[in-house]
Write a structure and sequence with these properties.
- The chain is mainly α.
- The protein has 15 helices and no strands.
- The chain is globular and about 55 Å long.
- 55% of the residues are buried.
Length: 451
């Protein structure tokens, strides 16, 4: 598999470069999200409890993912800076060291999570039926957790060179594999036993392990823009420390997002299973919309690192402006589409009128926040791409945990608004996030950070 296509963020026209990188990346994110959608589609035949179980389980896995995945983000920032400086050897060495560090760390986290699995449902305040299904699903899904993080690490390294096609290709292969084997393992088709929720988790784990084999083989062979070399390998403590210095704040940033989302799940759980299912389905739609935002955010982050390495800080401002304009227009279009067809999407997964009504109400609030959230995220990505990871983390955590979450709790439980208060708080948190991020960006504190 040879995919040496690379976007030149330093010399090519800004607008087209961002699109050429972000489009395949957005598609790969959507493909990655199909993992969960496939599982939800099959197990939704088991009822709302199964939908709520997968939604809650995904938040737990996302929380674990964020604890470790910042290491990949940190290495990607350094690789992008080395590429901008023209140091290909340094970029490859950073990638090799980071992948080994990721494998060790993620395996350790997985082992700990298996020990804590019995107490997780209690923390999440799950109903008895949801608890049983969640444990069944997680017990299998965690088998592939280490491999999933290794994939994320390898994809981050490759993307930092300007290549978004290779990760997309691998993800497409693994999602197709998951779609094929999931029904056999869930429903017991042919010679396979009926594993139910366990089958859904196992199918995803098998697909993730397959992706690791494909990606690692390509990087060792040098079939991408970066070549990992494990001959005479020795861990470089100083290099890993620099990666961790960038990665730890990135992990905290993503952890704040995960904790905030998990806490909101706990808040809405108090209003009943149908509200939890509604939030799960509504959030799925939001995440599908935000795939393009996340993709453009990584494009901005990569372009920022490379251009600062090439000593072109003013080009970074132009990159930010172009990204905000392009994604802002797209968000307006997608918001209109969700407003018009969101209910129909929800009805693909639930026929419970209460669930459908609540999910539609949730979407009526969040579509208003699409442009705000996208602008805030793109702005924070400039800061993280510049190496100001702690600053980016502070903005994200402060906006979500300091504003959105407490407001959701107060409006949800201490006013007559109930779930509507939670949905309103989500919107207000996105607005605050954007305002704070833009004020910090305009202060120019990010321009002088060394990586």
């Amino acid at each position: 598999m040879t995919t040496k296509r690379r976007v030149d963020f330093i010399n090519d026209p800004i607008g087209p470069s961002l699109r050429r990188f972000a489009v395949p990346l957005a598609f790969s994110f959507i493909v990655n999200m199909v993992y969960s959608l496939i599982d939800r589609f099959y197990v939704s035949r088991l009822g709302d409890a199964a939908i709520a179980a997968i939604g809650s389980s995904d938040q737990i896995v996302f929380l674990l993912f964020t604890l470790v995945s910042g290491f990949a983000v940190g290495s990607g920032i350094i690789v992008a800076r080395r590429f901008g400086e023209g140091d290909r050897v340094g970029a490859s060495r950073t990638g090799t060291q980071a992948l080994v560090g990721m494998a060790i760390t993620s395996a350790s986290v997985t082992a700990v999570m298996y020990l804590l699995l019995p107490v997780i449902p209690l923390i999440m305040q799950m109903d008895a039926e949801v608890e049983t299904l969640s444990v069944e699903y997680l017990s299998m899904l965690l088998i592939g957790f280490t491999f999933n993080l290794m994939n994320f690490q390898m994809f981050s390294i490759v993307r930092s060179t300007g290549n978004a096609v290779f990760p997309m290709t691998v993800l497409i292969i693994t999602v197709i594999l998951n779609a094929i084997i999931a029904p056999f393992l869930i429903f017991g088709i042919g010679p396979f036993p009926e594993l139910g929720m366990r089958g859904a988790g196992l199918a995803t784990a098998i697909s993730q392990m397959s992706g690791t084999g494909i990606a690692l083989t390509a990087l060792i062979r040098g079939s991408t823009n970066i070549h990992l070399d494990f001959t005479q390998f020795r861990l470089d403590g100083e290099l890993l420390r620099r990666v961790a210095k960038q990665g730890f704040p990135a992990s905290l940033q993503m952890l704040s997002v995960s904790l905030n989302r998990a806490a909101i799940f706990a808040i809405v759980a108090g209003f009943g299973t149908h509200v939890t299912a509604a939030y799960t389905l509504g959030l799925n739609i939001d995440m599908m919309v935000y795939m393009s935002v996340f993709a453009m955010g990584i494009a901005v982050e990569t372009a920022t690192g490379q251009n600062l390495g090439a000593e072109q800080p003013e080009r970074v401002r132009a990159i930010h402006r172009s990204a905000v304009r392009q994604i802002g227009l797209l968000m307006l279009i997608l918001a209109a589409a969700v407003w018009a067809f969101g209910t129909e999407f929800v009805e693909l997964y639930s026929r419970n009128p209460a669930t459908v009504t609540e999910a539609t109400l949730y979407l009526s609030f969040t579509v208003i926040g699409y442009v705000f959230f996208s602008t805030g995220l793109l702005t924070v990505r400039v800061l993280s791409g510049a190496g100001a990871a702690m600053l980016a983390m502070s903005i994200t955590a402060g906006s979500l945990l300091g504003i959105q979450l407490p407001l959701a709790f107060v409006l949800g439980y201490y006013t007559s608004m109930g779930p509507v208060g939670v949905w309103a708080a989500v919107l207000f948190g996105y607005v605050a996030f954007t305002i704070i991020a833009l004020l910090v960006f305009r202060s120019n504190r990010w321009r002088t950070v060394r990586v």
